Amino acid sequence: MLNYDNFTIEMATRLQNEMKENISLKTRNKNISTIAGADISHEVGSSKLYAGIVILSYPDLIPLSYSLAVGESKFEYKAEYLAFREVPTLIKAWEQIPVKPDLLILDGQGITHPRRMGIASHFGLLTDHPTIGCAKNMLHGKYDVLEDEKFSFRPIYKNQDKLGFALRTKTHVKPVFISPGHHMSVDDSLEIMNRTVQKYRIPEPTRQAHVMVNLFRTGQRQAGYHEFDVQLPLF
Fold first, then answer.
1. Candidates 3.30.2170.10, 3.40.640.10, 3.40.190.170, 3.40.50.720; correct CATH number of 34-224?
2. 7-42: b (≥16 Cβ within 10 Å) or e
3. Is the pLDDT at 232 greater than 80, yes or no?
């Protein structure tokens, strides 16, 4: 199993700088019929991690299946190096899925990262799969003043490079920060994520993954791959 426990920050930085050269910002597949959200939950003070991936139909967002896995990481928590802590357990959940979704949305950054290597880019490169990062907090770049209305957006720039978008998913509520991870263009990442917004701040793929993984952590769901018998909205 992939493990970064023995990596120092210097080693992690070097690997990020090497990996970023292989990121593709061209959309591999625009004919999306399934989309998934991925998230991690953990117990405070513990190295144990709970990973969840929820697959939904697209664009109607009906839940189809989910995969849950437990892992462990001793890599310290640092925002710029989240992938080194979380990706190994997420890949464990990913490998349980027999038919992969067309696109995976991860709770975190894509290329809106000092080395353009957020968790969505890292995961996408390791799996060679299209990914988008949907982060709750800004890590890198700047954007202009954003209107308060739902679906308002502004591009995120670093120097002259457009890296992603700040997207208001709910009126008068803090935006989320969208950026491509791998095999996805900047503009297509916004178009796709707009169609996953419902009544909550967090878009449906990562919101449902967040709820599911916390049910898993508290013993209300079991590890493994599961398909839904009744395809209705989860939460």
1. 3.30.2170.10
2. beeeebbebbeebbeebbbebeeeebebbbbbbbbb
3. no
